Amino acid sequence: MTVDDDLWSAIGDPTRRRMLDLLLADGGGTATTLCRHLPVTRQGVAKHLIVLERAGLVRATPAGREKRYRVDDAQLARAVAQLSSVGAVWDARLQRIKRIAEAVQREQTDPSGEPG
Question: What is the C-alpha separation between 113 and 62, in angstroms, rounded?
Fold first, then answer.
């Protein structure tokens, strides 16, 4: 699976991850409603929302003078699938490292169990 760097760059920021959590929990929100729960100004939240929207993680619809944002379930599922794929690759790498370390340790110990 190919990793989408723009997607992971968007998710990599802790404020944006918190915003996604809030949007998922509330079923959506505006920059104003989100800034009530974050240590960021409304303008800062709006800038973060633009990044999330460009990555396809949120979709905006007009709501009076503001936009209402909702998480794009398909894009979030894509991010989860990528994370799972990357996790599986790293699990395999760590298992190979463990096997190599165990083989080196066996080579350094003679049959009597004493270091050689």
Answer: 72
